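Title: Prediction job returns without error message
Component: structure pipeline
Severity: low
Priority: P3
Assignee: unassigned

Description:
Job completed but the reporter wants confirmation the result is attached to the right record. Sequence as submitted:
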Amino acid sequence: MQIDLNPRNVGNRYPIEVGLVGDAGPTLRHLLDRVQGGRGSGWRAEVEESVRRWRGIAAERAATPADPLNPESAIRELGSRLPADAQLALDVGSVVYWYARQLVLPPGVPAHVSGTLASMGCGVPYGIAAKFAEPARPVVVLTGDGGMQMTGVAELITVVSRWRDWADLRFVVAVLNNGDLAEVTWEQREMESAPRFPESQALPDFPYAGYAELLGLTGIRVTAPDEVGAAWDAALTADRPVLIEFDRPRRAAAAALPSGTREARSPAEGAASGGDRNGPAGPQAAGGVRRP
């Protein structure tokens, strides 16, 4: 069964048995009035158990120790602090996994994402656009260091030129900094059998928090788990935009390699040697922090 406001959309993607044209809310209420027999709770109980199990797995992943920080823990700490009227902007890369696993958005909080376009570097520009659209709502941007180096560093200058005009001055950019194009690294390991090709993946060091301070914003660098909560609290109560730089494990990619495996000198060498096929959905993902 498919419910859609536009009759042209009914059945155009997947074969259906029943097509109903109308708004989903009123249509479902009319359907419920016509449902015969009792409403079994077996399916609902199965869904609720699956949700409970997943939340337990997510909490376990966030609690996994890492040196210096578990990125999933950094994102999870935001959940209870996210303002009810906030807007979220999400960049592309491994930060999407941590967001999807760990952050539950309050009702009414939108997430501005690239989706399947995978437009790397979109995080800070999306955040600025969200602020332009609704300047009285706080904005939180989640990005990796790759996206930040692609566009975010330059777009902070735009933030500097505009933030004093905003009704709500809260604009928080969280940068997960591990010196690696992590998503592409894992694509190489999954699809090309190359454990890692540093020449194409390593990013130059950049002082993101220090750069924010240089621009007249507030910069916070987090290097220990017990600093995460206080950093979010300070950023969400500041009187100007804030950049939080979270240090993530720098040796995670190498540490996740099977015993006896070394980093490849080239993609071709990695393919020839077989490499490691544990990617975001593979066994190494269970621990969370062993992914770069």
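Comment from assignee: result matches the submitted record. DSSP finds twelve helices and eight strands in the chain.
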